[in-house]
Known about the structure:
The protein is an alpha+beta fold.
Amino acid sequence: MNSLYVAWQHPxxxxxxxxxxxxxxxxxxxxxxxxxxxxxxxxxxxASFFMVPGFMEFDRLYKAPAIFxxxxxxxxxxxxxxxxxxxxxxxxxxxxWDVVTELSLSGGRVRSDSFETxxxxxxxxxxxxxxxxxxxxxxxxxxxSIQRSELLEPGESxxxxxxxxxxxxxxxxxxxxxxxxxxxxxxxxxxxGMHQDNAWIVEEVEATVAxxxxxxxxxxxxxxxxxxRLPKGFSPMRDLPExxxxxxxxxxxxxx
Length: 256
């Protein structure tokens, strides 16, 4: 994985905005690039968004030979003795670890701000895509649902339902077990461009349990694989206006 996105949540309305994109170029040595998205302008206009820490100008393209501090501070310390267990919780092999994949799976959340990191959705030529994420919201369910989540098995199918009265999100998708226990919600980024004209436009949708982390906090209990097929030629993070970088190709580069 060589790219991820940054979302910001307004503290009061709880609305999410995509505000930035991090790219790791594969050349040796690796180089990192950060750019603000049009979604940052929307967040500024609608919710007084200021900036991502360390990136002061919306119209600049930032490049660095090492991961930016904003992102480095969101990975677990490499020297912590429980780091192998943490990576296993994310379904990662410590021997093939990379920072972008860790941040894409973990969400990169810290208590001091309202940012979250998430993976790019990249459909193939036929529109099929697959992604893996930690299921959101199990802690907001109920004791019966939490107990049922502990009995889930890898490969077990999950189902979806629209939630029409969610006060936080206009479009919200419930994730439930096949015997109808609510276990969470699809992450906000998965809904970008996949719900149009009041209809879910993804076909061949399938979600399965990738891993159950029984000893983990509820916020990291369930790792889920999500697959589907979007209309051919459509890629949300390529085509939606809010995901377009503000900086043009020839924009000033801010070296780090």
